Amino acid sequence: MNTPEPQKVSPPDSSEIKKVAGKSFVKRNAWLIVIVAVFAIVGICGWLAYIRVKRVLKKYESVVDADTVKYRSLKASNSVFVVPYSNTIKSSTLNIEGSSAVFKLRDETSSLFSADTKTKNNKYHFEGKKEGAAYVMNLSSQNDGKKSNFAQGDDSVRIRLNINPEWGINIKAGAAEFDFDLSKYKVKSIKLDGGAGSFIIKLGQPLATTDINISTGAAEVKFTIPQNAACHITKSSAFSSNDFEGFIKKGDSDYETPGFDAAKNKFYIHFSGAMSSFEVKRY
């Protein structure tokens, strides 16, 4: 009787062993893999959120001390700049340098100064410092080279001032639009160095002397002053038009309101520029 030979069983291929082992590991540790994946996703999202928060926080530099404030905005990021008011501040100077934006001043504030910026292409920098009983502020914008349609409000700054101090306002602007209602404020001086833009400014009663110096190129400049305010205008410009309603012409380039010499408080306005339109109306 023949005894059958035992069958030889080949050992599994190493690739098969790895495959089986791999499946076994995945099946046995599926829950662990899910947890690791969840932690990885949460970690990545947390890191991205941290970067975002860090960028947002960098919109502002911190208050250096009680008398000095610095702000810095990001491009395409709305910002709010605020300077606290103290009754020890008797006068303040606001220096604005900017272009490709609409600057508006309408309402007062209980702070010394506040500004809300809406920006698409500009970044804004602000510094303010108390110097004795005076406070000096500098607001400037930087453009990344892209053309901003300020006529459509792509970039705008809404400014509010405190009505208590005397104000000096200096504007250096390129192609921009300024619409300032300063009728509630004590304005001691305005200096405007502007390019091709629109500048509309409404004033209240002058101080003993309120000096206004305007130098523009290819711009539209409109001032309105109170009906009973004394005002002297000197115009030295080429190829520019003017409309000085209710003024008496005193020479080739000088104009005055009736009774100017006898008035105690007076506006002195000097216009210079080329290819510009100058207008002073009384309300």
Describe this structure in words.
This protein is elongated. The protein is built from 2 helices and 20 strands. Strands 1-6-7-3-9-11-13-19-15-18-17 form an 11-stranded mixed beta sheet, with no helix packed on it. It has a 9-stranded mixed beta sheet with strand order 2-5-8-4-10-12-14-20-16, with no helix packed on it. 15% of the residues lie in helices and 47% in strands. It starts with 13 loop residues before the first helix and ends with a strand. It folds into 2 domains: 41 residues; 221 residues, no CATH class. With 283 residues, it is α/β, with parallel strands linked by helices.
Strand content: over 45%
Low-pLDDT parts are 56-64
Query: Order of helices and strands, N to C?
Result: HHEEEEEEEEEEEEEEEEEEEE
Number of strands: 20
What is the domain tally? 2
Mean pLDDT: 83
Largest sheet: 11 strands, mixed
**Helix share of residues?**
10-25%
Strands of the largest sheet, in order across it? 1-6-7-3-9-11-13-19-15-18-17
Shape, principal axes of CA atoms = elongated
| Total DSSP helices | 2
The Cα radius of gyration reads 34 Å
Structural class per helix/strand content?
A: alpha/beta
Intertermini distance:
134 Å
